[in-house]
Design a protein that fits this description.
Elements lengths: L7 E2 L4 E2 L4 E6 L5 E6 L13 E2 L5 E4 L6 H16 L6 H7 L3 E3 L8 H13 L12 E8 L3 H9 L3 E12 L13 E5 L5 H11 L11 H10 L10 E5 L2 E9 L8 E9 L8 H16 L3 E7 L6 H7 L3 E14 L9
Parallel strand pairs: 13-14
Antiparallel strand pairs: 1-2, 3-4, 3-6, 4-7, 5-6, 8-15, 9-14, 9-15, 10-11, 11-12, 12-13
């Protein structure tokens, strides 16, 4: 979602190496702009301070203690532009994949300085990729923000993808999930985690961007280091001993604690026709209603080839533009096809 640049070996569907850039006031170290790709921990890219175009600022990699200040900075901006605090500490400190400039420092060349530095550092990645593979860098931004669009376009990016937040109100009891012959839906149990990861890995194999995490990173983000981990809100659809689909939910949405949040829902390709995805969602909706949640939200790639957006709309969810993912090509692939 919203994020800093990330360079990819598209064949292996993995990030190459981290690019980190944090712009701060040289004297007080107050954060003014931040961008980082993942995986990796703050400080893994050891870089000296570089001068930038704004006097009094310096560029450095992020540090663990920067996370809370980054959350505050980004939420100040999202509250002003979207009316909601959209960033959580888990999101920043687990993935370290964000991008922002402090609201009071817009128009001072900070975003341009960070993008330029990210591009400079990313230039060393193409030789590390497999021969003939296309290499790109991604930058996430709030959707429909013309100044951001102008800045990214000026640095060679194009808007490659749009993500929306889907929401549904739970004013009355939601419909019961339909029974599916041979399919049992139950919460996450101990030692189900690996099966859940493998199921979602297959379900998201077609996901745009090729950025599905390794099992260690996935487990770190969703279980080991997540303050929102609630195994009773995970729902697994079993076809005998094979896991056909998984839904992961969090007790509260980052921008509205009255709402439940579905962070992932995926069904293996061979099981997509019988209605397992809908059954998982209806199971979750009913559970959130019984918990007293006012509604449920989730995020979706509006161009998903799985038809997820159509499913959510059929279930009564409505879409609000949320984020855009921008892309700059570092090296064309052998076929030179743009991923629009």
């Amino acid at each position: 979602m919203p994020g800093a640049g990330r360079a990819y070996d598209s064949a292996l569907e993995r990030p190459l190496r981290p690019v980190a850039a944090l712009l701060s006031t040289a004297r007080s170290d107050v954060l003014s702009g931040f961008a980082r790709s993942s995986p990796g921990r703050p400080g893994t890219f050891r870089a000296p301070r570089w001068p930038v175009s704004s006097p009094g600022f310096a560029l450095r990699p992020p540090r663990p203690h920067d996370a809370e200040a980054i959350v505050e900075m980004m939420n100040e901006e999202s509250l002003a532009l979207r009316g909601a605090a959209m960033v959580s500490l888990d999101w920043i400190a687990n993935a370290w994949t964000v991008g922002s400039v402090a609201l009071g420092r817009h128009g001072r060349g900070i975003g341009a300085a960070i993008l330029a530095e990210m591009g400079r550092r990313a230039a060393r990645f193409p030789p590390l990729a497999s021969p003939g593979e296309r290499v790109v860098i991604h930058a996430g931004a709030l959707a429909d923000e013309p100044r951001v669009a102008e800045l990214l376009t000026a640095h060679g990016y194009f808007e490659a993808r749009r993500f929306a937040q889907m929401s549904i109100e739970l004013d009355e009891p939601p419909a019961q999930p339909a029974a599916i012959p041979g399919i049992e839906i139950r919460p996450l149990r101990p030692r189900d985690e690996r099966a859940a990861y493998q199921c979602l890995s297959e379900a998201f194999a077609d996901h745009w961007g090729g950025n599905w995490p390794t099992e260690d990173v996935w487990r770190h983000d969703h279980i080991d280091s997540s303050s929102a981990f609630a195994p009773e809100l995970w729902h697994l659809a079993w076809d005998g001993t094979e896991l056909a689909g998984v839904l992961i939910a969090d007790p509260e949405a980052d921008d509205d604690p009255r709402l439940g949040h579905v962070s992932n829902v995926g069904v293996r390709r061979a099981h997509r026709r019988p209605g397992i995805g809908e059954a998982l969602l209806r199971t979750s909706f009913l559970q959130f209603y019984e918990r007293g949640s006012a509604g449920v939200v989730l995020e979706v790639d509006t161009e998903s080839i799985t038809g997820a957006t159509r499913l959510y709309e059929r279930m009564g969810m409505t879409a609000t533009p949320r984020f855009s993912q921008w892309e700059m090509e570092l090296r064309p692939g052998a076929c030179a096809v743009r991923s629009r």
